[in-house]
């Protein structure tokens, strides 16, 4: 048995930069102890390995081992020699797990910006890059490199083991030539096994180095050469001319001090701060004006003399308004006055650059300024060519000069990856094995080098069953994934394309799981029992769990019947019915020759998928008469199932009949109501005035009560020629006190007496006494008279209102 304990190596050195281990592979007995294995029966005290490392500065190193907290220390290392010794017996239950190289190196201090003075000596260390890889063995060791492109040339080098960045020997930084450097650092591991093959993982990041200006450039005069005039009437102290100079270190300029180097001869003086030249003595000679001959053309000069070709290397998209300091161009016309005046013009693609100044007298330093940063694009053109023209203005000859400016562009990471389309549609059959290819996505990054490397990833709620190869963009199903269209047939997620600096774009992926015919139709039971009423079909039904048509479309057929040729089946609905010639139980019994009318049918349910699946069921059908189980109306409805139009006609007839009856009843009620509101002549009320009023007294009241008792139980007789008042009873009532003529007649007093009881006398407002007749005919007559009375009162009120109006 082999065992390997996780350990952490701690090399230490008294130096500026950390030492590192040599990686000699998993089968070596010296190096970084990566993937080292040991037999469990190794005796205690055996020297098993030698740690081997070095320091970038060449200083001595010391070695050590550290174990996880709480774990047992099995090894000891000599701090000087690196010799590792087994100090404890090994435990055979310890399991050795081999690491896979599945981790990228990760930078700990990049990207970042570093400021470096331009006078830093060559060979100096300016930064230490740090990256870690969580893999073990060779896959966990990290080496450093600088990315190199065709037009990129920088004065830096990096130690592949320590990550220390230095200025190359013999190289120097120059602020005036390049103020900023973009250095791409690549960290690579030592490689290792991943998914059965050797694989090397790498990462990259950008280090930005700002060059700090130093006082190393002398000042220069602006607008040279200078010409001045001294007139004969000039006096000492007169200002003749003012010169102007600027420090070459523009970011940190020093004050300019002016002085004469030669030729002043105590005649002229110059202000040391302003550059103003003044006269010290009276002029001794009269002023002479000399005429210049235009015999010189404008000429361009570089650092090495006259030249007509200038080149510059710079990064794309410089800031607008920035001066291209790498171009050292001076233009000069040796003539005087108007003959030395000329224009400068820059001819090239677009309006990317601008030349300053545009008008020159004698001599000037040419400055090129960025005008359109977006147009200076490496992806559109890797180099730019311009023509610089100098043309005289006020001379007949119009002498001119031409210089060519070629600018080589360096790429920056200014583009994000872009997918070939905004969304991808994929289809994959269900039950596809794990790891099946789903779809391939493609994104392009026009940037060069490591900036153009695209890595893919997927995310979203529907991405759990899929994974993508980060380098190729091919999307697969997970090894353990099982796609089932009946469970879920649509998946949507996003794919991300990202470059090394995190710029990215997204696209949407739609995956459809295609349904396969993997489910046969199924009946509820393989043996079904149905009761068929003669003339009414019975129905069988099977279910297919496939997700889509035609896989879940079922066709029914009769495979076998006993007796044969008796039943028909609807292939779509599964309805089973008798042949049309079987219309009575007599025919059924003649076929079977027995009273038991129970027949068996074997029904097949078959789907329309490819390949097709089918299943069968035995249906036991008991045939009976309709009248044995239901009434005639129910039997009619059951028979009407075969003829829907007959059912609809019956329902429509019933509805029409109900409407007609309702209309007749409504019309009769309306006519009766209208007739009851009219007052017939025989129903008009004639009121008689009594000549005398019988005085009421206590004795008369009891006489009245006696008379009423005699009347109880007898049907009151009402004359048809006599006017009756329901509220006051008849004119010959027991109580003859009439109601006032102008007072409305109150309604009849309700009767609360119970059946079998004698009517009670109830006193009304005029102190009348009445009783409730037992016969209903009298009450209906009284109600009719009461209605007529109310109508009469309403009619009189309407007449009175009309008379009052007129």
UniProtKB/TrEMBL annotation:
Cell compartment(s), UniProt: Membrane
Gene3D superfamilies reported for this sequence: Cadherins (2.60.40.60)
Segments of skewed composition (Pro residues): 741-750
Major subcellular site: membrane
Membrane-spanning intervals of the chain: 647-670
One Pfam match: Cadherin
Region (Disordered): 736-760
GO terms (BP aspect): anatomical structure morphogenesis; homophilic cell adhesion via plasma membrane adhesion molecules
Keywords annotated in UniProt: Calcium, Cell adhesion, Membrane, Repeat, Signal, Transmembrane, Transmembrane helix
Domain of life: Eukaryota
UniProt keyword Ligase present: no
Protein's name according to its UniProt entry: Cadherin domain-containing protein
Organism expressing this protein natively: Electrophorus electricus
